[in-house]
Design goal:
Length: about 140
């Protein structure tokens, strides 16, 4: 699946659904979690860079290096509820392609999902191969 400037990851399975995902190394103030690729679901409905579960955000130490509150964006639920997203800077690596991206990581109270959003994937040439259940980055 790799070679020729292309790296692919299998879709993640959850219940009866499959979701495209990328293998990312996420660097935080305290550590890289984990020391191998984390499979992060691609979500074009999230317009940010990277959303981490509240637990991972705290464990990696992002709460220690958050941007000032005035720079925290607002989010909105499907039901129209408005809430604040906590935000910190991060470095993302894609080891299969030796790619390094600087961006930000968000979370909010009660969040349990990890998502790669539009701001992250707009930096990549991405191929979603639905029939093969593969998400690929092409250089």
């Amino acid at each position: 699946m790799e070679g020729g400037g292309k790296a692919c990851w299998p879709y993640l399975k959850s219940d009866s659904f499959e979701f495209p995902a990328l293998g990312l190394l996420i660097k935080g103030p305290l550590k890289t979690l984990p020391l191998k690729e984390s499979m992060i679901r691609i979500d074009t409905g999230y317009d940010g860079f990277l959303l981490l579960s509240e637990e991972k955000y705290r464990r990696m130490g992002f709460h220690l290096s958050e941007l000032p509150r005035k720079y925290w964006p607002e989010g909105e639920t499907v039901a129209g509820e408005i809430f604040r997203l906590r935000r910190a800077l991060t470095i993302i690596q894609i080891p299969k392609l030796d790619v390094r991206l600087e961006g930000y990581v968000d979370t909010f109270h009660g969040n349990v999902e990890d998502l790669a959003g539009l701001k992250l994937i707009e930096n990549l040439k991405l191929l979603l191969d639905g029939p093969s259940l593969l998400a690929c980055i092409i250089r």
